[in-house]
Structure formats: structure tokens, C-alpha cells
Amino acid sequence: MDKEITIYDIAKGVGFSPTTVSRALNDHPAVNKKTKQRIYDIAAQMGYRSNLFASNLRRQHTNTIGVIVPILNSNFQSSVMAGMEKVANEAGYNLIISQSLGTMEKEIANAKTMYNSRVDGLLVSLSHDSESIEHFEPFFKKGIPVIFYDRVAEHKQSTSIVIDNVQAAYKATTHLIEQGCRNIVHITGNLKINVYTDRLKGFKYALVDNDLPYKKASVIATDLTEEAGIKAAEQILKMDPRPDGIFVANDFCAVNCMKALKQAGIAIPDDIAVVGFNNDPITRVVEPNLTTIDYPGYEMGEVAARNLTNYLDALSDVNITNTVTLRSDLIVRESSLKKKLKK
Amino acid sequence: MDKEITIYDIAKGVGFSPTTVSRALNDHPAVNKKTKQRIYDIAAQMGYRSNLFASNLRRQHTNTIGVIVPILNSNFQSSVMAGMEKVANEAGYNLIISQSLGTMEKEIANAKTMYNSRVDGLLVSLSHDSESIEHFEPFFKKGIPVIFYDRVAEHKQSTSIVIDNVQAAYKATTHLIEQGCRNIVHITGNLKINVYTDRLKGFKYALVDNDLPYKKASVIATDLTEEAGIKAAEQILKMDPRPDGIFVANDFCAVNCMKALKQAGIAIPDDIAVVGFNNDPITRVVEPNLTTIDYPGYEMGEVAARNLTNYLDALSDVNITNTVTLRSDLIVRESSLKKKLKK
DNA sequence: TTGGTAATTGCAACCGATTTCATAAATTTG
DNA sequence: CAAATTTATGAAATCGGTTGCAATTACCAA
């Protein structure tokens, strides 16, 4: 097995001190250009690779960004991560990733690991049942930047990257109303999470602004899983009068709900129009194609990572921006286009 | 900002030397139990956290596993990663992740970064156009374990985690034949990649074993994207005689091909039966539901990571296993069940 | 020639934990 | 009770870069 080459070996090779070698390798301006070149050449020739621990130990930073996600294998989250990885990689940062699997317990453990791994910054989407963000206090105390995205929490020391969930839900609901729906049901997730409370707000506001009554019974809170969609469908079928529109806070759940309704003989969109949320690929596969909100995951990942790397590289000196809101649009497809409006 | 607590601070606090503190914290047997307990208590009380760089620098390992994937945002890959993360996390390893975006160039750069980050081991799924694995030589030379999964390459020093693609494709094709198909088309990906050549082999063997002719014209090599599926459908529509079965090496492509065929008035499965590959969630959404091969991504991630951590923790002393083959099954759904066989 | 400044380079002290070797104290054995 | 072990602890070297400060040389103007 090859022995590892150090700057001391290089120093011996070129007849300069380790100090100069170190400086040359870091492109320090106080080193003669010719010296630098010679050192580069010899280093390359000897197959030198820098020892990041030694460097990190001395410099007190790691060039590593921690990411904590609820779950990796969802279309949205993996898109986010793809965007993050691209930006982080380009900026010279490594990404270390862990999933909370939706529990606060694991999120706390992960935060601790990240803290011990001394990440330079943290990108977090909160778990389903995270009721506090106390476990990030150590980061705040030590001035390690934490950026929340999608599922965020308010904190004066952290930035949040979100879409305007209220507005998006408002658009979605308004669209249903424009299609003639007068009795709309909203299927949502855990109402402790900002995204779902905001979407509920948008739903409510749209009703009110269109002089439609808002009834608590029209909101079905679920865990947004496959089964939840089916159960919600059953619940809807029992309602009297039967709803004529559904706004679901998640595509996957929406699709399963739709399937169950179709099996029960409901015509979509004519009997019931459906709108989802996220623009998951399945929305273009299900029949009829699902109207949904385009939630730009990849872009969100890029923005979150860029925000962090800029801050770390002191490109953005102060952390002025507290919230970044990305645009999100309604994508209209057949699942919500009632016939009477079609030509 | 809090100052960082070191073992020296603790040493001062308890009146023992840093040596003893270090040993106590690592649960070394040569430290008195009472001493240990006192050190634990004080460490906790002072809010001590170990400095991983110092430790890594001295110990020459990082407790970090590098993962290089072609692309993060695919259902299969993110499932794999979810499985990996779970196992690695439990075994006390961090995962650093990078994507090659399908190009060998970026894969080489990523490998270099991982090498410099001194990962303890590497988990790799090769990029589309990786024609050699020379860029992993430094790892092999230094004895750093590299495990390939899904898209693998032969190397005497590395383990591969795969499914039996030949057998899976054989099953899929045989199933189509059993359904009465006599003129089957195979849509595949880049034939330089093991998974696709193997699937092609399975396709071929199944034909031969059933006394059906294998024609080169029946194999459509594509990039398996959404558009590729549509283009392939157009190509199929022009064929004379028209095929009665399609075996696609990827669900996403299969679904789009199916949609295009349906639009052209083809009845599925009666005119043409379709089988996909991967068991992506969309297979249960498309109509008719797509018959496919269950490719256990999550499990593959678990197995790959476990294999690596066991090796690193010297639980499996020698690297005996060179290839691990996971089981994969055919899941039959409506897209391939021709009427005449239905009751 | 002299004083002064800029350009290069090196010494040595870190960063914080681990580990070899030696030592002191406690315990067992003959 | 002396000798041989065992148990518990510490001093100091080490891992491989980085960096404050000092030293040397080169260069320029007066």
C-alpha cells in the first residue's frame, strides 16, 4: 500500500520549508510564482493529496453542509437534494445527508450527529412531528447557519426558503370555484406543519372571497399516504350533499383518492373536480391528468444551498434575508376542467 | 459565542490527565469505573463534544462513506439512498453524497473529491457513459473498499450488488409469451451498461427457449426518457407486422410509450401487452396498471451499505463475496393480461 | 552609501485527540 | 515478607497542515 505523501515530503523534495509548500498549495500571494510552479509540479508528480482533517482541525471549518430531510425517497425531496448537491458541489462543499424518517426523535439524533461532525451549515426540512426546534439551539448559539426549507419554523437567526403556500392554495381553490364548484373539500396533512396550515388558510380565504361558506367538516386532516387518499374518498362519498370539488395538499394522496372515486363510479372532473399539490410525475400519468401546483423542488434545493454557501463564503455578509419565497404556479389539467366550460 | 470544550478542559476539571479523559470517553477497559463515571458526568455537564478531525487525523479514518449516484431524483435511486442512509446511520457512519449527472467527467471529479475527503469506503452506481473504472484505481491501490450496485463493473477487488437482470428479463419475456405474444419488441437503454445488456440477454434467451425468432429490429435502444417512450411508440406503430408485446427496461419510459400507443388507438393489453421494469409507483397509477419487475431499491441500498460497514468494522474479515444477487420478482398487472386468458 | 519598503521564506507554536511506553499503586503468590 | 502480577494513570510524541511573527534578501529612492 502506498504511503501517504505529506507537505513535509514535498518540502524535502523541493528544498523549501513546509510553510512555503503549504502556502504555495493554497495559492497564497506571498510565494514566488516560480516557486509555486515547482511545488505544484512536484506535488502532482508525487501524487500528493491534502489531508482534510489536518486542515480542518487547524482551520476550524469543514467545507461540509449537513442536510436533514424527513424522507429521502419522495419525488419532491429527492429533487430538492439534486438541486442542493449541484450547487454545493460547484461551491466546493460536501453534502452529508440524513433522514429523520418523520420522527422528531431521529431528527434530534441527526442534529446531534451533524453538530458533532461540525458541519459548516445546515439545511433542514422539519419532520412531521417536530413541535419545537430546540434541538437546533446549539447551532444558533454557535452561530452555525441553519436554513429551513419547505417545512420551516420561525426563528430570528435562521433563513427559510418556502413557496407562498397560502397563495398557491388560494389559486387552486379559486380555480375550482371558477370551474363552478360550490362545495369543495380540502384534504390536508398534519396541521402542525406550516405548509398545511398555510394551504388551509389559502383554501379558506378563497372561499370567503367568493362568498362561499367555510365549514370545518369540509376539511379532512390525514397523513397524506396512499391509504389516506382511499379513506378520504370513502368519507367524501358518504357526504350529503356530495362535494363537487376536492383540493388535496399532496399529489400522491390526490391520485389515490381519485382512483377510489372513479371506482365508485364518480366522473372526474364532471361530478367532482380534483386539484393536487406538488406536480409529481404521477400527475401526468393518472387519468384524467391531475391539475396541480407546480412546486419547484430542484430550484428550492438550489436556492437553499446557494443561500448557505454564499453566506459561508461571506459573499452575502449579513444574513439579511429571513425568508425567500419562490414562485409556484397552478398547472391546469383535465382533472379540474368541467365540461360546461370546455368548448 | 461559546468556546469549544476539549478533553484538556475536562482534564483540568476532574484533576486527571487528558490521556485518562480520552480513554474514559472511549470506554477503554484500563480506566477505573468510578473515574470513568466522573469523567462522563463532567463532560456532559460541560457540554463537551468530540472533535472529529483531531480524532480522524490521529486514527486515520473518517467514519464516512461516499456515495456516487448517476442522479438523485429518480424513484429507484432515492429509495436506494434511503436504505443506505438507514443502515449507515445505525452503524455510526455519515454518508456524503454526490451525483455524476450521468457523465463520466463528473463521476471522475466526484471520485477525486471523495478520495481527498478520505472516505472509508465508496458506494457507486456507474454513470451512463462510464466506459472504464480507472478513476477508482486510487481506491483499489490504497485498499479502500468500493462497492458497486445496480450499474456495476467487474473488478477483482470490489463487490457488486445486483439483481439477476438476465433472469428478470427472462421472466418478463416468458410471461409475455405465455400471454400469447409472438412478436415482442424490447425497448432498452444504453447497451454499454450491464443492466441493459443483461436484460437484453434475458429477452433473447426467453425467445429462443420458446422457439421464437430473435430479430435485431425488435430491439429499440433509447435513452429511456419520457420522449424516448413516445418516439419508440411511433416506431412500433410503423412496424409491419405490428408487435403484440413490448418489454421495456424502465417503467417511466414504458408508461409514456403506453400512453402514446393508447392515443393512437391501440388497446392495451389486447392489441399490445406491455411489461416494464422497476416497480415505480407510477405503474400502479397508469391505466391499465403496468406489469413490471419489482426491483427492490431500498433493500439494495441496505445490503450495499451493510456489506460495506461490516467490512469496515471487520465483521466480515475477508472480502469473500464478490457479487451479491438480490431476488426480484415479476408483478403481474393488467397491462399484460390478454383477455383470452382471463376468466 | 544609507535608510526604507516590499517581496520571500522559515521557525515554531498551534489545532485536539490518540497511543506507546513508563511508572506508581494495589493485589496476589510463593 | 519479598517477588511477581495486575490495575490505573500520566508524560510526551504524533497525526499533517496552518499561521503569527521574525528574518533575510532584493529593490529603490535619496
Structure commentary:
Two copies of one chain form a homodimer. With 343 residues, chain A is of the alpha/beta class. Chain A folds into three domains: 7-50, lambda repressor-like DNA-binding domains (434 Repressor (Amino-terminal Domain)); 63-163 and 297-326, Response regulator (Rossmann fold); 165-295 and 330-341, Response regulator (Rossmann fold, 3-Layer(aba) Sandwich), CATH 3.40.50.2300. Chain A contains twelve helices and twelve strands. In chain A, the strands form three sheets. A six-stranded parallel beta sheet of chain A has the order 2-1-3-4-5-11, with helices on both faces. A four-stranded parallel beta sheet of chain A has the order 7-6-8-9, sandwiched between helices. In chain A, helix 5 (75-90) packs parallel to helix 12 (297-312). The model of chain A has no long low-confidence stretch (mean pLDDT 90). Chains A and B meet through helix 4, helix 5, strand 2, helix 6 and helix 11 of A and helix 4, helix 5, strand 2, helix 6 and helix 11 of B.
